[in-house]
UniProtKB/TrEMBL annotation:
This protein's name: Hydrolase
Keyword Hydrolase attributed: yes
PROSITE patterns to which the protein is assigned, alphabetical: CN_HYDROLASE, UPF0012
Organism: Fodinibius salipaludis
Domain CN hydrolase residues, every copy: 6-253
């Protein structure tokens, strides 16, 4: 039923607060990914605007108007599936959803997910985040784009990565590829990013697909990078390091089944 293996690209970006220039570089990354054979391209969390949470709120209406048009047009132009990272969508009550859309090559948004777990964390006396000041959480349930061509993609965003029960539910609902577009902090990323991603891949015998932000955004926001793709055995098959760019790996939905028969841990659950 499923197509054979295909190339998928994760994009690593250093997004700033100039919407148009972020969209221009996104366009070039997508174009180059497709030239290099990618059938699916994934963007990081807040690829279109990153740097100031309150600044982004002033821009949210414009972002929410322009980004879906951009993603639709670009998916169509290059005939590519796009996992559109995330962008803010006003809820109507003064906050936004941190919204992760999935586009097909005909330019349709066929599925979308609103980030559930919000990053309200004090890492240090001068490093605090209060995502819930701006963002409304989505419904706590799994969201999957099911495709006969590219497999079943479970959608999540960044901080969700720390909540394994979400991925368990996605897998129970049929996910084979776990999508985790991110802007992990440098502070947490250096110690937590890789082990968490590999754990999600191994414990769910699933691909992990994690585009990322990297570098400095404004003066005091620093992200970890290392956008990557991990196979269902838990091997890192693509790692972007710390520079912005594109990394590509093969995704083969049939391999998920193969690994699940070698390690049937999902079948052995007793709770
Ligand atoms: O708001 C933006 O501009 C972009 N979005 C983010 O940076 C989000 C919400 S503040 N970051 C995370 O979820 C980091 C999680 C993380 O780093 C961890 O779990 O350790």
């Amino acid at each position: 039923m499923f197509s054979e293996s295909y190339k998928a690209a994760v994009i690593q970006m250093n997004s700033q607060t100039d919407l148009q220039s972020n969209l221009d570089s996104t366009y070039h990354y997508i174009e180059e990914s497709v030239e290099r054979g990618a059938k699916v391209v994934g963007l990081p969390e807040n690829f279109s605007f990153l740097g100031g949470l309150s600044m982004r709120m002033n821009k949210a209406d414009e972002i929410a108007r322009k980004v879906p048009k951009f993603l639709s047009r670009t998916a169509k132009e290059f005939e590519v599936y796009i996992m559109g990272g995330s962008y803010p969508v006003p809820t109507g009550s003064g906050k936004v959803y941190n919204h992760s859309p999935f586009y097909t090559p005909d330019g349709e948004e066929v599925q979308s997910y609103n980030k559930i777990h919000l990053f309200d964390v004090d890492l240090d006396k001068d490093e605090s985040y209060r995502e819930s000041d701006y963002v409304e959480p989505g419904d706590p349930k799994s969201v999957i784009y099911e495709s006969d061509y590219i497999g079943n993609w479970g959608l999540s965003v960044c901080y969700d990565l720390r909540f394994p029960e979400l991925y368990r539910e996605m897998v129970a609902d049929g996910s084979q590829i776990l999508s985790i577009p991110s802007a992990f902090t440098y502070t947490t990323g250096q110690d937590h990013w890789l082990p968490l991603l590999r754990a999600r891949a191994i414990e769910n015998t699933s691909y992990v697909f994690a585009p990322a932000q990297t570098g400095l955004h404004g003066k005091n926001r620093k992200t970890w990078g290392h956008a990557m793709i991990i196979d269902p055995w838990g091997r890192v098959v693509a790692d972007a390091g710390q520079e912005p760019g594109i990394v590509i790996a093969e995704i083969n939905p049939a391999k998920v089944q193969e690994v699940r028969s070698r390690i049937p841990s999902l079948k052995h659950r007793r709770m």
